[in-house]
From TrEMBL:
CHCR repeat placement: 383-534, 555-756
SUPFAM superfamilies, per database record: RING/U-box (SSF57850), WD40 repeat-like (SSF50978)
Recorded topology in the membrane: Peripheral membrane protein
Keywords per UniProt: Coiled coil, Membrane, Metal-binding, Vacuole, Zinc, Zinc-finger
Main location: membrane
Coiled-coil boundaries: 799-833
Residues of the RING-type domain: 842-877
GO cellular component terms, semicolon-separated: CORVET complex; HOPS complex; plant-type vacuole membrane
Protein name in UniProt: Vacuolar protein sorting-associated protein 11 homolog
Gene3D superfamilies xrefs: Tetratricopeptide repeat domain
Subcellular localization, as worded in the UniProt entry: Endomembrane system; Vacuole membrane; Prevacuolar compartment membrane
């Protein structure tokens, strides 16, 4: 005991029992915020927190010996003497009846005589009540005869059971009084400790009859018994304090001196010890876990010791009191920090179950203290215990000194083990490993895993640091295990240059992951492993193995595969490889969803004039040209090499153009209206790269015949131009005859001698009568290099044809004039002379004509009955007459449609013939003097006067 440190963790306050409490204090109890005091005059008084009297009442007529305030219900159980009879009473404190101005009496719900014939009278030495399950009470009354009277049941309803427990053997006549009792409840098990000066006994009350077990052959005197918060029996003897479990004696603490009072408060052992040498009493508060005396002071004669309101209350014989309260944790810790008692402070906060933040703060201060003493290892041990509460940067900053790298490494390892490390912590730890060159620890850190197989660090940070420190194998291990394929391949390709291994790794991935990695690192793979990379791309885009398993290559399945268009960017510096890849794909897959984009890309590759082929610049026909140039070869050799390069380029360009033309034709089959490529893009590519064949094919396919011949005109290809017109200008085959007119105009504006071509063109113009001679003459007259002999034969034939037409027109005119004169004579005859109708038969029914009859001026006669109601026109001549009237109405309508007239004049080869036709039909006629015909006007021009 003398080795234990003493501290002032408690503070005391003096007070006194009020004078209203009469008589000598015989018993005390506490609970439910009250102090209950029983006096030798039979009164019971209730005190509040300020030790002021609330009320008192007369519980017994003579004296109150024992009492206990129940916790679950507001009941008070007392034992006292009433008219020389020992009684047990139960008071309901919630039901108080006023008796006067100063006193109140609670309802007494039960009165029980303790001693009966079966339970002989003896002196009561101890008393304890256990609330089992309301309203059931278990009351134990210890006697000086070594017996315990147990009363169990509902006292208010007088439903009780009594039984007796014998502490000592019945044969032993020297019975000792029961000085202490204690209940222990462990689940369904209920035990009762009984202490006498000579023994410690345990009764198992859940057994019937109760089973007795002697735990020790020595006990203690009165007031030296209490129960700990772990349901241990604590008894005090002059030499020590002993703890008892249900199986016997447990630990003991050697505190010298007579133990007058023993108590338990919040984990502290309370002792009032009498020093026999000095005769003074001392009150000590022991912290058994931390082996310290939390408080110690000298006291007068103590009569009772209670715990209530978080205080320890000592009642002295002179009715003075001492209220002892525990200081707050902060005050206690400040006291310890001033004395540098950090270990005590740590034990204190841990024993009192303080929150983790408070514990971490104490550990931090202890670590700072050790650090200031340069005890770095021990300081780090304290800092490690603060992980999760103390900011790691606080510790890291202290140990960044290079000489403390081992301590820093240890701290960072613990951060990762507890899963609170950040990316910066991972970076710092890996840098520590690499600086120490501790490969073994690095292996453990990188390759260790928990039960779930997850890393305890930031994967990307670990990869980056290991890679920067040239620990590539470690970085690859982390990347592969974490499924970070992009990092794994980045190290393989960019740092190690192991291209074959990278390709093999990509091949082992899932198709979706493999596609993503190829997009990311395809440029490097194409640069070094072209063929192998293309093979992987073919497997990804066609899935040869998978499609064979599925037995299907439908469009729906192909749409789920990656498109070759997705990988175009990796071929940006290798167009030749891109062309090979797309060609292989198109040969394999005929109905790809990305067919349009693939064909567009191939057309760009095929039709471009210049591709940067690395192989061409380095080798040709087995000769390393670049090497010879670098070796200082002669100028003549360099010139020959340059020519050889140009020849190879021209040959390659020609081959690609031919493949491009084949693609243009094959991707636009005759049964499709639109091609499987972008026509506008194809035209632009052909024009940019001067690819005449492709441009001609596209124009002809799109029926842009004028653009076709324009291509020939640009290069002055006369033979091709005439051949093209022969093919495209035949109207019988759906061609455009106006091409010959454009061709004639071209030769007329050529400015050079092209007599042969003009003669051939004129033959086709003359054959199809495409242009009138006057237009031909005007067009060819613009070329000064052409002579009259070119068109002499053409003009003579045309003049002969015109003469024949004129003669035919003259004969037709004469015929029409003769017919007109005959018609006019007939009209005059009808107007002036009578008509004799001599028909004897009806024109309609061919029967003999009889009256009534109808005769028409057309010399047709009919029965009136054959005509019916239609007597105004001849049935025979009416259809012809109606057709003439309809024709006249149409002509009148046409005469009002000016736009149609001018459109015909404009679009006709010979506008004069259209005007003549209108004159012939009578649409254009003379108008009367002073008037104008408004039926044919164009703008402000009138056609009157014809």
């Amino acid at each position: 005991m003398y080795q234990w440190r003493k501290f002032e963790f408690f503070q005391e306050k003096h007070a006194s029992i009020p004078d209203e409490v009469s008589g000598r204090i015989g018993c005390c109890s506490s609970g439910r915020g009250k102090l209950v005091i029983g006096s030798d005059d039979g009164t019971v008084s209730f005190l509040d927190r300020g030790l002021n009297l609330n009320f008192s009442f007369q519980a017994h007529s003579s004296s109150t010996l024992f009492l206990q305030q129940l916790r679950q219900r507001n009941f008070l159980v007392t034992i006292g003497e009433d008219e020389s009879t020992m009684c047990l009473k139960v008071f309901d404190l919630d039901k108080i009846q006023p008796e006067g101005t100063s006193t109140s009496t609670p309802d007494c719900i039960g009165i029980l005589r303790i001693f009966t014939n079966q339970f002989p009278e003896a002196q009561i030495t101890s008393f304890l009540v256990l609330e089992e399950a309301p309203p059931i009470l278990l009351i134990a009354i210890g006697l000086d005869t070594g017996c315990i009277y147990a009363i169990k049941g509902d006292i208010a309803r007088e439903r009780i059971t009594r039984y007796k427990l014998q502490v000592d053997n019945a044969s032993d006549r020297s019975n000792s009084p029961v000085t202490g009792l204690g209940f222990r409840v462990d689940g369904q098990a209920l035990q009762l400790f009984a202490v006498t000066p000579d023994s410690v006994t345990l009764f198992s009350l859940h057994n019937q009859p109760p089973r007795r077990q002697t735990l020790d052959q020595i006990g203690c005197a009165s007031n030296g018994v209490t129960m700990s918060d772990r349901s241990e029996l604590v008894i005090g003897r002059p030499e020590a304090v002993y703890f008892y479990e249900i199986d016997g004696r447990g630990p003991c603490w050697a505190f010298e001196g007579e133990k007058k009072f023993l108590g338990w408060f919040r984990g502290y052992l309370l002792c009032v010890i009498s020093d026999q040498r000095s005769g003074k009493d001392t009150f000590n508060v022991y912290d058994l876990k931390n082996r310290l005396i939390a408080h110690s002071l000298g006291v007068k004669e103590v009569s009772h010791m209670l715990c209530e309101w978080g205080n320890i209350i000592l009642i002295m014989n002179d009715k003075s009191t001492l209220c002892i309260s525990e200081k707050d944790m902060e005050s206690k810790l400040d006291m310890l920090f001033k004395k540098n008692l950090y270990t005590v402070a740590i034990n204190l906060v841990q024993s009192q179950q303080a929150d983790a933040a408070a514990t971490a703060e104490v550990l931090r201060k202890y670590g700072d203290h050790l650090y200031s003493k340069q005890d770095y290892d021990e300081a780090m041990a304290q800092y490690i215990q603060t992980i999760g509460h103390l900011e790691p940067s606080y510790v890291i900053q202290k140990f960044l000194d290079a000489q403390r790298i081992y301590n820093l490494t240890n701290y960072l390892e613990k951060l990762h083990e507890k899963g609170v490390a950040s990316k910066d912590h991972t970076t710092l730890l890996l840098n520590c490993y690499t600086k120490l060159k501790d490969v073994e620890k690095l292996n453990v850190f990188i390759k260790s895993e928990d039960g779930l197989g997850e890393h305890k660090f930031d994967v990307e940070t670990a990869i980056r640091v290991c890679r920067a420190a040239n620990y590539h194998e470690h970085a690859m291990y982390v990347a592969k295990k974490a499924g970070r394929h992009e990092w794994y391949l980045k190290i393989l390709l960019e740092d190690l240059g192991r291209y074959d291994e990278a390709l093999q790794y990509i091949s082992s991935l899932e198709p979706s992951q493999a596609g993503m990695t190829v997009k990311e690192y395809g440029k490097i793979l194409i640069e070094h492993k072209t063929e192998e990379t293309i093979e992987i791309l073919m497997r990804l885009c066609t899935e040869e193995g998978e499609s064979a398993k599925k037995g299907s290559s439908s469009g729906a399945y192909l749409s789920m595969l990656p498109s070759p268009v997705d990988f175009l960017n990796i071929f940006i510096h290798h167009p030749q490889s891109l062309m090979d890849f797309l060609e292989r794909y198109t040969r394999k897959i005929k109905d790809s969803p990305a067919q349009l984009e693939i064909h567009n890309t191939l057309l760009e590759l095929y039709l471009s004039n210049d591709l940067n082929f690395p192989s061409m610049s380095q080798a040709s026909n087995g000769v390393d040209l670049s090497f010879r140039e670098k070796s200082g070869s002669s100028p003549m050799l360099k010139a020959s090499n340059g020519k050889l390069k140009d020849v190879c380029k021209d040959k390659d360009r020609s081959e690609r153009h031919q493949r491009g033309l084949c693609l243009l034709k094959s991707a636009w089959p005759s049964d499709l209206e639109h091609p499987l490529y972008d026509v506008d893009l194809a035209i632009i590519l052909c024009e940019m790269n001067a690819f005449k064949e492709g441009l001609l094919y596209l124009y002809e396919k799109m029926k842009l015949y004028k653009e076709v011949i324009a291509c020939y005109m640009q290069v002055h290809d006369h033979e091709g131009l005439i051949a093209c017109c022969k093919r495209l200008g035949d109207s019988g085959k759906g061609g455009d005859p106006t091409l010959w007119a454009d061709l004639l105009k071209y030769f007329g504006e050529l400015g050079e001698d092209c007599s042969k071509e003009v003669k051939e063109v004129l033959s086709y113009i003359e054959r199809d009568d495409i242009l009138p001679p006057i237009i031909v003459l005007q067009t060819l007259s613009r070329n000064p290099c052409l002579t009259l002999s070119v068109i002499k034969d053409y003009i003579s034939r045309k003049l002969e044809q015109e003469s024949k037409l004129i003669e035919e027109d003259r004969r037709a005119i004469e015929k029409y004039q003769e017919n007109t004169l005959a018609m006019r004579k007939e009209i005059q005859d009808l107007r002036t002379n009578a008509r004799i109708f001599q028909l004897s038969k009806c024109t309609a029914c061919t029967f003999t004509l009889d009256l009534p009859a109808v005769h028409f001026m057309c010399m047709h006669s009919f029965h009136q009955r054959c005509l019916g109601d239609n007597e105004k026109e001849c049935p025979e001549c009416a259809p012809e007459y109606r057709s003439v009237l309809e024709m006249k109405r149409n002509l009148d309508q046409n005469s009002k449609d000016q736009d149609r007239f001018f459109q015909q004049v404009k679009s006709s080869k010979d506008g004069f013939s259209v005007i003549a036709e209108y004159f012939g039909k009578g649409i254009i006629s003379k108008t009367s003097n002073g008037t104008k015909d408004n039926s044919l006007r164009s703008g402000n021009t009138s056609t009157t006067g014809f």
